[in-house]
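User: Here's a structure from my thesis project, written as structure tokens. My advisor, Dr. K., wants to see whether a designed sequence matches the one we expressed. Can you design one independently, without my sequence as a hint?
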């Protein structure tokens, strides 16, 4: 008898299912978002400017028509918008220097945004460490950290192995690793991340960036909202820190850069 009642209850609940339009109170905002890192490489430095999209499922909107400069105590570099890529502004080639303070100024009609960045030195790149996957010919990259805080971009290209391109669906991938000063419990108890596996013949290009204290603080808040979210010690969701004035989001940084490469044999 009890089983019959339970069965009828379950069936009744299943039949009562219907879509419920969940209404939330939200305020649509459009904010300038700046992505700008200048380096010690002699090249055309880049500043990207976008407006946040009110629809979270759509990409941000490039901003044209801005006046952008970067200056130190001696020189001022003017950035011109690319004709091919809206919202991307490039300077004439110049090389930022360790120990100097740089000021970014963005003028949008009568509104002015500003930020400052200071380049710190960078310790040499550490030894390549590759881990071979058991019972497989594939490898994964394992970062080795020593010296100062840094960000490491690892670009993988297995174009020379067409079979693996077919299996994986593409021929390149990139991983980014961070070495920050503080002990981060969110990182230790955060969700597991996928390790990208790659075959012999893969070319690895590493790019290491120095990180100032302000840059570390920005990356820490960014990671707490992205890679480190979903673990045991999540923090209250919030906006990522920014060093751009006047209510804009994003970050302006100055990084010393070192690069090297290796082909996996």
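Assistant: Designed independently from the structure alone:
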């Amino acid at each position: 008898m009890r089983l019959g009642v339970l069965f009828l209850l379950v069936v009744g609940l299943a039949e009562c299912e219907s879509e419920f339009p969940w209404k939330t109170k939200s305020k649509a905002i459009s904010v300038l978002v700046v992505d700008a890192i200048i380096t010690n490489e002699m090249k055309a430095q880049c500043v990207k400017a976008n407006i946040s999209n009110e629809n979270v499922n759509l990409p941000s909107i490039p901003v044209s028509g801005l006046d952008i400069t970067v200056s130190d105590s001696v020189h001022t570099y003017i950035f011109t918008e690319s004709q091919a890529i809206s919202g991307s502004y490039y300077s004439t080639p110049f090389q930022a220097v360790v120990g100097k303070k740089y000021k970014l100024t963005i003028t949008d009609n009568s509104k002015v945004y500003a930020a400052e960045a200071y380049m710190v030195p960078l310790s040499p790149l550490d030894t390549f460490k590759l881990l071979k996957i058991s019972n497989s010919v594939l490898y994964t990259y394992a970062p080795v950290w020593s010296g100062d805080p840094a960000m490491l971009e690892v670009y993988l290209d297995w174009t020379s192995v067409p079979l693996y391109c077919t299996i994986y669906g593409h021929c390149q991938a990139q991983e980014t690793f961070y070495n920050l000063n503080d002990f981060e419990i969110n990182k230790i108890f955060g969700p597991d991340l996928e390790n990208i596996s790659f075959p012999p013949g893969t070319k690895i290009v590493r790019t290491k960036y120095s990180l100032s204290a302000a840059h570390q603080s920005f990356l820490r808040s960014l990671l707490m909202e992205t890679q480190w979210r979903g673990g045991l010690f999540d923090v209250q969701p919030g906006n990522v820190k920014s060093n751009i004035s006047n209510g804009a989001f994003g970050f302006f940084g100055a990084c010393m850069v070192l690069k090297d490469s290796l082909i996996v044999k």
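When you compare it with your expressed construct, this may help: The two ends are 70 Å apart (CA to CA).
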